[in-house]
Design brief:
- Helix content is 24%, strand content 21%.
- With 187 residues, it is α+β, with helices and mostly antiparallel strands.
- A four-stranded antiparallel β-sheet has the order 4-5-6-7, with no helix packed on it. It has a three-stranded antiparallel β-sheet with strand order 1-2-3, with no helix packed on it.
- The chain is elongated and about 100 Å long.
- The two termini are 79 Å apart.
- The relative contact order is 0.07.
Length: 187
């Protein structure tokens, strides 16, 4: 195809689109006509009876308001209610006992091949050092160290488990951000 032919095709296609758009716009703004009286399709008589029936229908107006007033969807189904309400037996709610509130802080842990030790402090500042299986002599009493990990200590208080986690130390303003703790400096 040469350029002139392509140009003509594009112009005719554009003109067709514009004409179709104008026709659609004009059609959209035209007033709606009232529908003619409809003849049911399944009971259409033939011949002379059809002419007589159309003349009868032309004389009697059709009430379209009835069709508009009907519900759009089917009415909801009516569900039969039981005559006597069913008895609901409520089971007693068994709540597990609340975890004991500990105002303790895990200061640190020491992990060695044959021994694990936890350093625990309470709110008053009293500090104890305990290994696994030992009782902790802080308030509330009755706590025992169940297990010690590098960043967590699990305690057993009255048969319930509670845990203390080691808090990460916040960086101090004195140290350089490039410096890593416990590392040798390059010489």
């Amino acid at each position: 195809m040469n350029v002139k032919l392509q140009h003509r095709l594009l112009q005719s296609f554009s003109a067709g689109l514009i004409a179709g758009t104008l026709w659609a716009a004009v059609w959209a703004f035209l007033p709606l006509n009232e529908p003619e009286q409809a003849i049911p399709l399944d009971t259409t008589p033939t011949g002379a009876a059809a002419v007589a029936q159309t003349n009868d229908q032309a004389q009697s107006p059709v009430d379209l308001a009835l069709a508009i007033q009907k519900p759009l969807y089917d009415p909801p189904k009516v569900v039969a209610k039981p005559s006597a309400p069913a008895r609901v037996v409520q089971k007693p709610v068994v709540r597990p006992p609340a975890k004991p509130k500990l105002d303790w802080t895990l200061i640190g842990t020491i992990i060695e091949p044959n021994k694990r030790v936890a350093i625990i402090s309470d709110a008053s500042g009293k500090t104890v050092i305990r290994s696994e299986g030992e009782a902790v002599a802080l308030s509330p009493t009755g706590a025992r160290v169940a297990s010690i990990a590098s960043n967590k200590v699990t305690l057993e208080i009255d048969g319930q488990q509670a845990s203390l986690k080691l808090r990460k130390a916040s960086p101090t303003s004195d140290s350089d951000s490039d410096e890593r703790p416990n590392r040798r400096r390059n010489r």
